[in-house]
Request: fold
Amino acid sequence: MAPEMPGGGSTVAARPPGLIRAARAKGWPYLFLLPAVVAIAGIFVYPLIEVVRYSFYAGSVGSLSYVGTANYVSLWQDPVFVQSLMDNLKLLATVPIMTVLALVIALIINSQIRGWRQYRSIVFLPYILPATAMGLTFGYLLERNGVLNTFLRDIGLGALAPDWLGSGSIVVATIGMVIVWQQLGFGIVVFAAALLGVPTELIEAAKMDGAGWWQVQRLILIPHIRRVIEFFVILEAITMLSAVFTYVYVLTQGGPGNASSVVEYYIFQNGFENGAIGVASAAAVVLLVLASVLIFFYLRLRLRSEGGAK
Amino acid sequence: MKRLFVTTGRHGLLILLSIVSLYPIWFIIQTALKTQNNYTMNPTGLPSPLTFSNFVNVFRDMPFAQWTVNSALVAVVSVGGVTVIAMFAAYAVAFGEFRGRGFFFNSNIALMALPPVALVVPLFLVMVQLNLVNTLTSVILVYAGLMVPFSVFFLVNFFRELPHELIEAATIDGASHLRILTRIVVPLSGATTVTLMIVNAIWVWNELLFALVFLQDNSRRTLMAGMALYQGRYSVNEPLIMAGAFLSIVPLVVFYFLGQRFFVRGLTAGIGK
Reply:
C-alpha cells in the first residue's frame, strides 16, 4: 500500500472551494492572519478609539453628552489625579535601584560561584507568583505590629519600625519595595543569561592584559550586555507606570487617604466605583500618551536588536 | 586570605537574598497551619498547635473550589484559543510574503507593552451591550485577545529559526500551507508551544483587574479576584487567607520546579533578541 503522496493534494486543487482557493493563491497569509486581526481589532483597536471618544463625554452610558476638553481640565484640577500621577513617577525611582542591584547580583552569579544555579532558581521564584497572593501576604508582614516590625524591634532597631502601609509619607516606597521583591529576580536572570553569552576569549584576553575582577566586569561584561540592560530599564519603567494596579489594590486600596493611588487605580475608581466614565477615559488617554513614549523606545530597541541579529 | 573573604561575602549576599525571596512563602505555609489565636499571639513563631483546619475552612467559608474551577477553565480556554490564533498569524508572518507584514508584526510588539487598564472601560461597556458581564466568557474573550500580541511575537521569533528549506520543499511538493503548519511546523514547535502556554496561563491565573471588574457574582469569580475581595470584605482571619494563598500558589511552584527552563525562557522573551 503506497502512503498518500505529498503531491496528492494537487488533484484537489483542480477545483477547490472558495476558501481553499483563496488560501492557495497569494492571499493565503491574509486568511491566516484573519483571526488575529479580528482579535486585535476587537480587544485593542476598537477600545482605543472608544476610550479617546469617551474622554470628551460626560455622564453615564445611556446619557452621554459632549463636554469638549472639560474632563482633561478637571483631571489637572483634581488633587487625587495629580497625586496618582506623582505616585507612578515615584515608583519609577525603583527602576535604577532594581537595575543596579540585579546587575551586581548577576555578576556575582556569573562568576561561577558554587551553587549558582540554585541561587538563580530561588531568586526567580517570586517573579512567577501571583501579585494578589503575595500582596495579601505582604499586607500581613508589613502591619504595624507585623513580622517585619517585630523582627526590627527584636534586633534593637525598633526606631526603624514605621507603619509601612499606614503612613502616607512612606507608603509608596513600601509598595515599591514589594514590587522590587517580586521583580528583582527577573532582572537577575535576564542579566545572568546575557552574561553567559559573552565570548570567553574576550574575558581571557583582558585577564592576560592584567585586568582585575572589577575591571573585567566594568570594561568587558557590562558594556557587552548594554542592550539587555536597556531593555530591562524600559520594560520596568513601563511596569511602574502602567502595571502596578494589583499591588495597590491589594496592599492599600490607594490609602491612607489617596496617598498611594496610582493612575491605574484612579481609572478603576472613577470608571467603576464613581461611574465617571469620561474622567476615567481621560485619565486612560493621559496614561496612554505617557506609555507610548516608553513603547516607542521599546519598539526602537527591538527593531535595532533584530537588525543587529541578521 | 582576601580571596576567602570575598567568596564568603558573595555567598553571604546570595544567601541573604535567598532568605528574603523565600521567607514570604514560608510565612504563608507557617501561618496557614496556625489557629487564629496562635497567629495573633505569635505571628512570627512556628505553629503551636499545628492545625489543618484552615484548609478545610477555605472550602467552607469561601466558594474556593468554584473559584479554582473558574480560574482553571478561563486559563485553559483562553490559552488554547490564543495559541491557535497566534500559530496561524505567526506562520503567515514568518513564511508568507505579503504587504503589511512588517506593520503587522511591529504593531504586535507595540501592543505587547500597551497598558491593559486603558482598555478596561470601553471593554466593560462592550460586555454590557453583549450581555456578557458576569460570565466567564467575558474574561476569556478579553484575555485571549490581550495575549495575541505577545504570542504572535514569541512564535514568530521561533518560526524564523526553523529551516526555511523545509517549508519550501513541502510547498514545491504541493502541500497546502494549512498542511505544512499542522504536519511540519506544529510538531517541530512542541517545547516552544509549551513555553508559550505556560507563560500565558500564569498571566491569566494571576490577572486581577479585568476579573475584578467583569465578574461580579461571588461564585463567578476567579481565584485571585475572589481572594482579593474576600480579604477586603470580611473580618480578618489571617490563617484562613494564607491557606487560600498557599493553595493558589502551589500549582505554580510545583510546575516551576518541574519545568524551570520553560518558565525562564518564556518569561524573559520580551528582552534581547
About this structure: Residues 79-262 of chain A form a domain with the MetI-like fold fold (CATH 1.10.3720.10). The two ends of chain A are 46 Å apart (CA to CA). Chain A is about 70% helix and 0% strand. The CA atoms of residues 184 and 242 of chain A lie 18 Å apart.
